[in-house]
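EI: anyone free to look at a 363-residue chain?
SC: sure, send it
EI:
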Amino acid sequence: MLNRTRVTNWLVALSVAATVFAVVPAGASNAAPRTNSLYVALGDSYSSGEGLVPFIAGSGSCDRSTQGYPALVAHALRTLTLRFVACSGATSAQISAQVGTVSKKQWRQTALATVSAGGNDLPFSGLISACIGATTKSATPLFFYNPGVNSSIDCLAAVTSAAQLLGGALTTTNDALTIPSAALTLPLRQPSTIETRLRALYLKIMRAQGVVLHRAKGPRLVVVTYPSLLATSGAGACVLSPTPLPIAGPPGTDGLPQSLLAAFTSPASYLLSDLNTYLQLETSIVVAQLRSEGYLGLSLARATSFAPLDCSTGTSPDLNGLLLASTATTSSGGSFHPTSAGQSLLASSVEAAWRASVGRATN
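SC: here you go
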């Protein structure tokens, strides 16, 4: 058994799970544009560039970074002036409020808007804090939840809650997620709660832009889907960082304390991966449904080459795992967020979607 005092210290080290996606107010405005072509970047921490310091002066707790994909897209397109209002931790409701921080005049000047949304509605933070634990590095690894803080029951409860927002359920007999086909097929007649929220958000943005139905030309909204976050772990636990936790585990066969690594159990990693996949699918379905209704300026950006976290090593070139701070009592806000390379891939997907939509409008 783990020493309870050491477990308490370990819990402090893992407290990032409750703050990675901390909810904060929608962002403040940037400087007034100098051209008649604006790019408005809305969204949550995946849009703000969470973890990629230094953050832009004046962005406060929204943690906007020049390494986030909005800044990279604006630099690549050059003809558009960035209006950066994405904010770390924002839910779909808070992103809807971001729309109002952009003036009507600025919306009339907007050629491109981007948004990522939905992750904080589940929320990712609750799923991480409910399901995270530690595993030993031995040949026959052991897994530990945080005694008195979380357990397999807590993890399943958090997954069940998130699945319900996606219109699905958790089958406890085999710990599998099921989503009704009505929430995943067109025409979308029985949208999930998440799909309903995303639809309302996208419509609000496009109405602010002055989008005209069935018109190919005009302002563009590019919806940026979340990349795949976890590669499924097989039989073993899904390791979330190659860095050992700052506490000793139980004695091994040699009588010495074993190293501990932050991890999800294999079943939990599969469930979290499934939630990620279903959120991607439902985002895509909402975009497809709105396009079928005549919103031709709406498109989807997918970073298809984005490398998820390798569960055997806890690493990815495109995604941070759990980042422990040097004090070993706190963690970086960049945990479970794209690296600079990952943000570059998101930017490339936005640029491709933008150019494809502009090309369709001119053909």
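EI: The longest strand covers residues 110-115.
SC: 👍
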